[in-house]
Automatic annotation (TrEMBL):
PROSITE patterns: 4FE4S_FER_1 (PS00198), 4FE4S_FER_2 (PS51379). This is Hydrogenase iron-sulfur subunit. Residues 473-502, 503-530 form the 4Fe-4S ferredoxin-type domain. GO terms for molecular function: 4 iron, 4 sulfur cluster binding; metal ion binding; oxidoreductase activity. Keywords: 4Fe-4S, Iron, Iron-sulfur, Metal-binding, Oxidoreductase.
Length: 675
């Protein structure tokens, strides 16, 4: 049980001591009756010096104060007060809690208004008097960074890191770097600024190149990753503080070519031939003075179509080629692509938009392309001198293995970043491991280089020049309670837990989501300032006069924002007994909170987390939903209508969805009362 601390409440009011239904004088009298509490009512519009004088008189300098600042729209109206408290009085930022009383003002009668204000202050006070500061610590880390892959993004990252003074281990699987220019022929050299990157990497004394490398193992945590690599058959261990992953894309012919037929080329092969010889019709004896080429596909990605159209354009300059292009879906989203397609059409390109991929067969050693022509509504066959197959940009096939070794959640297509908007652009679920450019998606060169820069600046900010700043004591293991069951180790989405003879949380890697705390069977982990003690104390403040009683457990990354916006922007009037409780992530929800809520007299409980695939800690929303479902089963067993416990996902910018969820629960509760 946390020892309660003293609390100083500042009620910031306007020139009058009452506003709407709120009487600050009465509110102050009530607040002063709370245990271990003192109250100052002050007009934040007073001159700065006068405000400071009153604050100094109220808050004795040198003492540790916990200050609850309650006002209407405090971040705007009491901005000067906040500034003085933090900068002049020196209040620890974690001990200054601002409370917006706007929600209380939304009730039409003065009694409801003051009851709600009492309750909002009561909940905030119960949290703040139990708050413990999360300190900041400086941790020594290795400034050395592993850059993995030989894409231009990897090359840019290596050079930029070295430029910032980081020693770089640049490892890639091939004997020499073989970066691709996305959307360009494989034979096209890069433009000068990019071309000079290779020279810069060669010249930098801080970059150690490691060709023919294979990633074998990873131990340790951000700041001290121990990487085991196999290099030309030898095993090497390297210490690095962080990593930037940018493995190059692979080009895969689509569909697979008929076994090496001399008239069926992949796009790369055609590009090489076009580079080697000015004209390629000499390869094929013309039929009736005309050569027919068919390009199949090109629609896997706008960058593939860009390459295809470049090759078509080269071929069209060579009489007597007639070119047909078969597309299922013309993705002309890339800049200049629509114009390139129109130019090719103007040069005589015949475009077939087909619903099924054409079939390729051989007759008398000549490729035949058969397809259903949606214009003629008939199956057609085109005899071709040359068939060119699209090449799909695919992620490095080794990515799955790499993601597994590194403990990363890989994306659905085999990239190294999960499809989750919270991770964009370069973050992974592991602190200190970033993914850029072709490591996370197919993208053009400009975007890949920009992402490399972003990853470099995040890495630099994290590792500095060998010192990292980390929270101190945010997630705490009670070693006396821990039985080393390793549930937390298995479930931590950020891989921040290891163990000696008890679970150990790595403070630089931990994101404070609370998933571990909610799952620990021995309640051995607490998330500071979201402790069980604080949550239960806040629930216990429920005033029996406030009805209907509803506890709402809201993820601070989404639902909490939506709740605030619903009140401020949508003018939502919540039921008087609606008690919002903030969680660091929905994954922190403990089933005990839900069951206890009903024993405290809640009529309904609402749990809200981020939408699917939008959780910052990967599956916090799913964990919350599973717990709600389990609790619903238990409620049904003891005869409580399980519908009184409702789970809803909500995005931070969707206050109306928040409102809908509240209305749905109220509807269920009213049905229950009617029954
Ligand atoms: S889940 Fe709890 S008891 Fe199990 S290892 Fe982690 S801290 Fe220890
Ligand atoms: S709070 Fe979240 S990130 Fe930190 S150790 Fe627990 S599960 Fe991992």
């Amino acid at each position: 049980m946390t020892k309660l601390k003293n609390l100083d409440i500042i009620l910031a009011h306007g020139p009058e001591l009452s506003a709407g239904g709120l009487d600050y004088y009465q509110l102050g009298l009530w607040a002063a009756s709370l245990p271990r509490t003192r109250v100052l009512a002050v007009n934040p519009g007073l001159p700065r010096e006068e405000l400071l004088r009153r604050l100094k008189a109220f808050l004795y300098l040198g003492e540790e104060h916990r200050v609850l600042l309650a006002a209407l729209d405090p971040l705007r109206r009491a901005r000067l007060l906040i500034q003085l408290l933090l900068q002049e009085i020196g209040i620890h930022p974690e001990f200054l809690l601002t409370l917006d009383l706007q929600e209380a003002l939304s009730y039409p009668d003065a009694k409801a208004c003051s009851l709600k204000a009492h309750h909002l202050i009561g909940v905030a006070a119960s949290m703040l008097t139990r708050a413990e500061p999360v300190g900041v610590q400086e941790l020594p880390v290795s400034p050395r960074v592993l850059v993995w892959g030989d894409s231009y993004a990897a090359l840019k990252a290596a050079v930029s890191l070295a430029h910032l003074g980081h020693p770089v281990l640049w490892a890639y699987p091939g004997p020499t770097p073989a970066p691709l220019l996305p959307g360009a022929p494989v034979t096209e050299p890069p433009e000068p600024p990019v071309a000079s990157l290779l020279t810069a990497a060669d010249a930098s004394p801080l970059i150690s190149k490691v060709p023919k490398a294979r990633f074998l193992e990873l131990e340790g945590q951000v700041g001290h990753f121990l990487v085991k690599l196999e290099i030309s058959g030898e095993i090497r261990q390297e210490l690095v503080g962080g990593m930037i992953l940018a493995p190059e894309l692979h080009l895969t012919p689509n569909p697979k070519p008929l076994a090496d037929h001399f008239r069926i080329f992949s796009l790369s092969e055609l590009e090489r031939r076009l580079k080697e010889q000015e004209k390629i019709e000499g390869l094929f004896p013309p039929r009736d003075g005309l050569l027919q080429a068919a390009f199949i596909g090109g629609d896997s990605h706008p960058l593939s179509l860009k390459r295809t159209l470049k090759a078509i354009s080269r071929l069209q300059t060579q009489d007597p080629w007639q070119v047909a292009l078969f597309l299922r879906d013309a993705k002309v989203g890339a800049p200049g692509l629509e114009a390139a397609l129109e130019a090719a059409l103007a040069q005589g390109l015949i475009l077939f938009k087909v619903s099924e991929p054409p079939k390729i067969s051989l007759t008398d050693d000549l490729p035949q392309v058969s397809f259903f022509d949606p214009v003629m509504l008939s199956r057609e066959v085109l005899a071709c001198d040359l068939v060119v197959l699209d090449e799909v940009y695919r992620p490095d096939p080794d990515n799955h293995r790499l993601a597994h070794l590194l403990g990363l959640f890989s994306g659905p297509a085999g990239f190294l970043q999960k499809d989750n908007v919270r991770l964009l652009p370069v973050v992974t679920n592991r602190q200190g491991i970033y993914v850029a450019g072709p490591g996370r998606a197919v993208m053009d060169l400009d975007q890949a280089l920009a992402e490399a820069d972003t990853a470099v600046s995040m890495c630099h900010e994290l590792l500095g020049q060998g010192l990292a700043f980390a929270p101190k004591g945010r997630a705490v293991v009670d070693r006396g309670r821990c039985t080393l069951c390793l549930t937390c180790y298995r479930l931590c989405p950020h891989r921040a837990i290891s163990w000696d003879n008890r679970a150990v949380i790595h403070e630089l890697a931990c994101q404070g989501c609370g998933t571990c705390a909610a799952h620990c069977p021995n309640e051995a982990i607490q998330i500071r300032n979201f402790t069980d003690d604080q949550v239960v104390a806040a629930m216990a403040t429920l005033d029996p006069r406030l009805t209907p009683k509803i506890f709402a457990f809201l993820c601070q990354n989404s639902a909490w924002e939506a709740y605030q916006a619903a009140i401020k922007e949508e003018g939502l009037i919540l039921p008087l007994g609606f008690i919002p409780l903030r969680l660091p992530c929905a994954g922190k929800l403990d089933i005990d909170y839900l069951l206890r809520g009903f024993t405290y007299g809640a009529q309904g409980i609402l749990v809200m987390g981020c939408p699917l695939d939008n959780c910052r800690s990967d599956q916090g929303n799913c964990h919350a939903l599973w717990r709600v479902e389990r609790a619903q089963g238990l409620l049904a067993e003891v005869g409580i209508d399980p519908r009184r416990l409702l789970y809803r996902p909500v995005a931070a910018n969707a206050p109306r969805d928040f409102q809908d969820a509240v209305m749905s629960l109220l509807e269920i509760l009213s049905q229950g009362q009617a029954a």
